[in-house]
Hints:
By secondary structure, the chain is α/β, with parallel strands linked by helices. The chain is built from seven helices and eleven strands. Helix content is 27%, strand content 20%. Strands 1, 2, 3, 4, 5, 6, 7, 8, 9, 10 and 11 form an eleven-stranded mixed beta sheet that branches. Helix 2 crosses helix 3.
Amino acid sequence: MSFPFITAEQRLAEKRGSKGVILGPSGVGKTTLLKTADATRTLFIDLEAGDLAVLDWPGDSVRPRTWQECRDLACYIGGPNPALRDDQSYSQAHYDQVCALYGDPAMLAKYSLIFVDSITVAGRLCLQWSKGQPQAYSEKTGKPDNRGAYGLHGSELIAWLTQWQHIRSKDVWLVGILDEKLDDFNRKVFSPQIEGSKAALELPGIVDQVISMVVLKADDGTPYRAFVTGADNAWGFPSKDRSGRLDPIEEPHLGKLIAKCLGRAAAARPAATAVQISPAFPTANASQE
C-alpha cells in the first residue's frame, strides 16, 4: 500500500479557509466585524455575552458557558482527530459523543465562517476548569498547585486552538483583547490578553493570520480604525500574514480581509452593514493615536 501523496492539482483544488485571530483594545469594534461578513454563512460563537453591538445582526449564534461546551463545539465543528486516543478530547470517541448530543453535523454545511468572540473569555473558562482538575493539586499535600493548573490550562487551550486551525474547509476567526503594558525600559509592549503565558506565546505559530485592530491617525490627525497586518510594523503590534497577500494596513472589514487572504474577490455587502471608517481609507504614513 503506497502512502497517499497529494498532487499539486489536488491540493490547489481543495476547498480551504483562512484561520486567524484579531486582537484589539476593548471598545474598538471587534464584535461589529460580524456586520462585514455574510450573515447567512456565518456562525457567531458568543462566549462574552457581549452582543449588544450586533443585536440587529441577522445571523445564527451559539453561547457556550463552560469549557467542556467549548471543547464539544470545537470537536463538533472540526471533526475527529485520528491521532488521538479515545480518552482524549477531539478524538473519534469524543466526536461520536457530541454528534449524538447535538445531532447530524451535516447541519453545519451552511456555515463557511466561524466567528469566535472571544479567545480572552475562552482562556478564562479554561483556567477555571483547569483549577478543578487533579493536576491542579499537589500529590504530596493535596493543596492547590498553581503550576499544575496553569500547565494544564496552557496545553488545553493550545489543543483547542489547534482544533480550530485544522478545520480546512471553513474560515475560522477568533477575536481577543489586546493588552498594552510598559516594559522595564518604559516602552509600550502589546500582547494578547489570555490567562497564562503559554497560549499567548504559541498563538502566532498556530493560526495563519494575526491581526491587530487599532485606532491610528492620518497625517491630518483624523483618527480611523484599521487592521495592522505587518509583523514589522512601527508600533510593535502583534501581527503576522502567512498569506503574503495583505498590505501592512488594511481596512477593518472582515469579509474583504478573508477574501484577500484567500486570493478571491470579496462579495458585495450593503453599505449599511459595513464598519464605518473615514471616506478615504489611509494606508500609509499613519501614526498611533
